Amino acid sequence: MYIDxxxxxNSTMPEADTEASSSLDxxxxxxxxxxxxxxxxxxxxxxxxxxxxxxxxxxxxxxxxNISTAMDTLIAGMASLGATQAxxxxxxxxxxxxxxxxxxxxxxxxxxxxxxxxxxxxSAYIYDENGDIVDTVILGxxxxxxxxxxxxxxxYNGKEVPDGTYSVxxxxxxxxxxxVSVSTSVTGTVKAVFTQDGTxxxxxxxxxxxxxxxxxxxxxGNQTDEDDQADA
Length: 232
Fold this sequence. Notes:
Blueprint: H1 5-12, H2 15-20, H3 26-39, H4 48-86, E1 92-97, E2 100-104, E3 107-108, E4 111-115, E5 119-127, E6 133-142, E7 145-149, E8 164-173, E9 182-196, E10 199-204, E11 209-211, E12 215-220, H5 225-231
Antiparallel strand pairs: 1-9, 1-12, 2-3, 2-8, 4-7, 4-9, 5-6, 5-8, 9-10, 10-11
């Protein structure tokens, strides 16, 4: 005798549990298989081929579950290993893709913006931690390549803004009005390493954070490898 899986589950499981899960785990599958054997008609036992198919399905389910568990363990292990290796960056200077500047008193961290092509006009927009724009800086024209940006820490009215981390966005236009691509990067000395949702972040000495995957160069102290090569 063959037992319909859906009917059996609906008759043996509480309604709340049925609604909470739409898939079968190993225990559910085994429970159904045992119940089928217990309730089969002695005069019409379960077909051997059908039983083999069900046992094969159970074995495949168990294998997939074990693979999933192993993958979760592997991913967690890799994240832990990555964080351990990243700890070697502490005390080193890094350059990474990023768009924030930190203000502490009169000290404001610089950042770099890179133009994909020559631009007739370039502007920088400063946002506070709430996402509100506090200042716009007109930078004028710029050639393709990298340029340093140093904000003065003042808002629209020329008033000094509170200490904290600010985001900077750039817009650039070519002479014909077409948009010019702009990428940004930040530099700083790594103070700490932490993970969040499986992603490894580096905390810089000025409080900013950068994704480890976005790091483009590292060096001892505050200078990057590219700077060292330029001095050589």
